[in-house]
Amino acid sequence: MFNLCVSISRFIYIILMGIFILCGYYLYLRRPSERTSREICNYQTAAIILFNLLSFVILFFHELQANDWQFGEPIWNFLTKMAMAAGFMLGMHILSTTLHRGTSRLLWNCVFMLLSVSLVVLWRLKASTAIAQIYWMGICFLVVNVVLLIMRRDWVFRIHKWIFAAGCLGLIVLPFLFPNKQGGSLNWVQIRSFGFQPSEFVKIAFVFFLAKVYGRQYKFRSLVEATGMVGILALVLLVQNDLGTTLIFCVLFLLLIYDYTQKTFILVGGILGACLAALVAYKLFGHVRTRVSAWLNPWSDFEGGGYQIAHSLFAIVNGGWVGTGLFQGLPTYIPHVRTDMIFAAIVEEFGAVFGILLVMIYMLIFLFIMDTAKREKDLVRRGVAMGFGILYMLQSFVIIGGVIKLIPLTGVTLPFISYGGSSLLSSFLILGVLQSMIRIHYMERKEESSGGKGQQSSKQAVKAKEQKGARDDAIQDPYDFDGPY
Asked: CB atoms < 10 A from the CB of 156, how many?
């Protein structure tokens, strides 16, 4: 009976994710009225709730089956942890839609769906990691609320660029002072019992630095400063054997510099320079050659460098289009499955169709952030939004591309899904900054529409309200109504 329920659930998961995606892209492409947008966001919320309820039922009956269908202490512990997770998710939803008015509910919903997938998969892989992730979710949501409260005014965007540069350099050298080598990379810091990955937070400071540098009229000095900073960071990361973050930093730098200069030859030159640097790294560093060899032919060294990617491919093929179902696959055979390779576990048990829909959520986040950047008049805020949008997309592409053998595998995490406090906290910090910018833009538009700081007469306000109601179904700008979608 349990296996039959799991088999049926595979199709329900795909349907729920499909509804979520259709609603999200409808909101982004059609820009409906406020009332319609609210209803569609409610459909997304319903899909998230049903996804979690279905997952809870499957996990609950699996726990019962593992405990011989007896209600003992393990079952009550399971129910307690599930209640805690549900409480966190519900609290985040309520606070995000009430306390932080003017932020994007669509963006919140995308994050909630990704977090839901994360908890289900992590619980299936190892319950203790899911419980730890629940605690991290609570901490991260407290942090993002603090960020949203602090950034009710945009003073953060006026901090001097060299403060952000000092933050980048200070964080990037910490692994040399407090080393904690993991997976062959010296990119972790261990201070007594506390460990974290500084490069996750260097990304945030680096985006702010580039936005400040590019937030002025075109100057050759700006290019020199940005190039020098990315060069230093790339060299340090190469020494630390953090290839994934190095790739992300370099591509982010190239795309932002192209947006700043609008000169194609600079982009082409940067790409050629990056290719040359990759060739030099391949010649100089043995671990780079190992990664490339495993990418080209993982079967030639199946028990060595190709072991991880080979098992990832086995899992993806085993899952097929609709997956094997929860607890019906063998994802635990994949090395680092809870962090770097979690996408392979998702595809094996939820299916390739579900994996494609998951990628479409990241694409939707990217498109929405780019749309937010396009609407920004302030160059610094525009640069920050564009940088964070590119960062989200790059990180998702690099790890998913590595898992499916599209590009050489590098050790980065999948935002909001992979296990790890550093990754989750940095993703939430970026989310908080983006939502703050959306709210700032919303308040500015609201002031403009009200005639400037509430100086509009009551008669004019009534007339404006009537006009707004008349055109409610023809709104094209999502910031024209009371609250962005």
From this structure: 15
Phi, psi of 182 (to 5 degrees): -135, 130
How far CA 271 is from CA of 8, 26, 291, 314, 410, in Å, comes to 47, 35, 21, 33, 19
**pTM for the structure as a whole:** 0.88
Nearest in space to 366 (alpha carbons), one of 400, 321, 335, 339: 400
HSE toward the beta carbon, residue 8, CA cutoff 13 A? 8
* Packed helices 342-350 and 105-125: angle between N→C axes, nearest 10 degrees: 90
> How far is Cα 6 from Cα 328, in angstroms, rounded to an integer?
8
Backbone φ, ψ for residue 210 (5° rounding): -65, -40
Find, among 290, 294, 288, 286, the residue nearest to 311 by Cα: 294
Three-state SS string across 346-361, please?
A: HHHHHCHHHHHHHHHH
Which residues have CB under 8 Å from 446's CB, separation 6+?
102
The H or E element that residue 195 is part of is strand 194-196
278, two tokens: 């990759």
Distance CA 173, CA 167 (A): 10
Backbone dihedral angles phi then psi of residue 179, each to the nearest 5 degrees: -70, 145
Centre a 10 Å sphere on the Cβ of residue 467 and count the other Cβ atoms it contains: 10
Residue 365 CB coordination number (10 Å): 25
Element (H, E) at 190: strand 189-191
Are 170 and 235 within 8 A, CB to CB? no
End-to-end CA distance of the chain: 42
Spatial CA neighbour of 240 closest among 290, 165, 177, 301: 177
Digit-by-digit pLDDT tens for the chain (485 residues) are: 778 888 899 999 999 999 999 999 999 888 888 788 889 999 999 999 999 999 999 998 888 887 777 777 778 888 888 888 888 878 877 777 777 777 888 999 999 999 999 999 999 998 889 888 988 988 888 888 888 888 877 778 788 888 999 999 998 888 888 877 766 667 778 777 777 888 889 999 999 999 888 876 667 788 888 888 888 888 888 888 777 788 888 888 888 888 888 888 888 888 888 788 778 877 877 777 877 888 888 887 777 778 888 889 999 999 999 999 898 988 988 888 898 899 999 999 999 999 999 999 999 999 999 988 888 888 888 889 999 999 999 899 989 998 998 888 877 889 999 998 888 999 999 999 998 888 887 777 777 766 654 444 444 444 444 444 444 443 334 333 334 55
**Burial bucket for residue 4 (CB in 10 Å: 0-12, 13-18, 19+):** exposed
Residue 364: closest CA among 13, 21, 15: 21
Distance CA 16, CA 25 (A): 15
Q: Give the DSSP letter string of 428-441.
A: HHHHHHHHHHHHHH
Domain ranges of the chain: 2-447
- Record the tokens describing residue 152, joined without a space: 């009710």
